[in-house]
Design a protein that fits this description.
By secondary structure, the chain is α/β, with parallel strands linked by helices. It has six helices and five strands. Helix 3 links the parallel strand 2 and strand 3. Helix 1 runs antiparallel to helix 6. The protein is elongated and about 125 Å long. The relative contact order is 0.18.
Amino acid sequence: MGAQLRVYKRRIKSVTATKKITKAMEMIAASRIVKAQRQVVASTPYATELTRAVTAVATGSNTKHPLTTEAEAPVRAAILLITSDRGLAGGYSANAIKAAEQLTERLRGEGKEVDAYIVGRKGVSYYGFRERKVTESWTGFTDNPTYADAKKVAGPLIAAVRQDTAEGGVDELHIVFTEFISMLTQTPVQNRLLPLSLEKAAEESGTKGEILPLFDFEPSAEDVLDALLPRYVESRIYNALLQAAASKHAATRRAMKSATDNAGELIKSLSRLANAARQAEITQEISEIVGGASALADATAGSDK
């Protein structure tokens, strides 16, 4: 076997092994998408009803609360960016980071300081490589987040909202994540969690245009909002983590399918080149045999004379 043919066979073997790996990763990602979608659907009713309750309390009272009251001159905002712990997902994390960068530039253009909170190793690595300050970060659960993970992330953010800005608190809380729309479409989105826009909250909870009933609050509307604030932030972050996980698995499936298809095309191309090299070797061997036989025949004829 010629050297060129051995090179082609070695490359075909290597690409075939890679194809098996990418195909397995594609199938794993496809199976995880279904579970992530179910979790998103299951978490939506709770978040919707909680938003409905917050809207009812806010519209039924005149209490000023960080959950619903705009600061007169906001000076600091917090951005929670949700990325992935792993790669091999195409531009999933890069697109989310780009959306967060655009939001950061807009907020700074409005004269606000921005505190970064990061979920996922990809986002942490991006900020770390550029030596940017990260107020707090979390890793290790982006593929399969739980409500306990959402509570862990929400804790420092809620504390920052409740704290006075002079002591490091924030006036606004934004979240950037990738929304799962379908198996083929996942879009990075920027949402402001706090202060809550009552009009947007009413639209999300399906109460827009409705006349909400009047309530009596005990011990007070402020205490009710204090109790709802952590639940509201936790539920929104949990839903965003689930949306991001489903989007990441869909992006991984799409990237691995593309890699598997490309590997198949490369194997076909290398097989054609290997066949051409083998044909060239066979042709050369036949030519050498024919040439040798011809030379032997000429030598024999010369000796007979």
